[in-house]
Specification:
Layout: H1 3-22, E1 26-28, E2 46-48, E3 59-66, H2 72-76, H3 82-96, E4 100-107, E5 116-120, H4 121-128, E6 138-143, E7 147-153, H5 154-160, H6 163-180
Parallel strand pairs: 3-4
Antiparallel strand pairs: 1-2, 4-5, 5-7, 6-7
């Protein structure tokens, strides 16, 4: 499977995951299709297209599906660290659309349906408020430009943290950010 088709398939799978988790319809952004609620939403890989939620949705979702993701590159200070590049893109796209970034990434040999759910510290605070999530593996990585990245298994998020809590925290983060500006 070529990388474009692989990426498209992963985006469809993540859109389905977010739809099931949130109860709202999420779809891939396809330039020119009119599939997103507004132009500002076209900066991320996925957008909420649900009539009840699309105009209020405060998260920006970036999807990355690579052959290999090397976590050790962060510790080695590798300038070409994919994780940091992925987060930088997610962060910039979210900022441009006044949303909060979520990075969904996976590598080829991960179990089917599983991926890494990556968020910054402010969004992670609400995840840590749900103690059952602590029963699952997770990691926090300090980055040079964006503070801590918190990496969870998607299955742990799906089972323990309600989407509404994440979305409410995203709205709070944006309100704080806008008041500080």
């Amino acid at each position: 499977m070529n990388s474009k088709r692989k990426g498209d398939k992963f985006e469809r799978a993540i859109a389905k995951w977010f739809t099931e988790w949130s109860g709202y319809k999420f779809e891939r952004n396809r330039a020119g299709s009119g599939a997103w609620h507004s132009n500002k939403d076209s900066t991320s890989d996925l957008t909420c297209t649900d009539e009840k939620h699309a105009h209020r949705c405060k998260i920006s979702i970036e999807c990355k599906n690579y052959k290999d993701i090397k976590f050790e590159h962060i510790l080695l200070g590798n300038k070409n660290c994919d994780i940091l590049k992925f987060w930088e893109q997610a962060y910039k796209d979210a900022k441009r659309s006044n949303k909060v970034p979520i990075l969904c990434m996976r590598y080829n040999s991960m179990p089917k349906g599983e991926f890494f759910f990556v968020v910054g510290n402010a969004l992670a605070q609400i995840i840590f408020a749900y103690p059952p999530v602590m029963a699952y593996p997770f990691m926090t990585i300090s980055t040079p430009n964006h503070g801590d990245l918190n990496i969870f298994m998607a299955s742990a998020i799906f089972k323990t943290v309600p989407y509404k809590a994440i979305h409410k925290q995203a709205k709070f983060i944006l309100r704080e950010r806008n008041e500080d500006a």
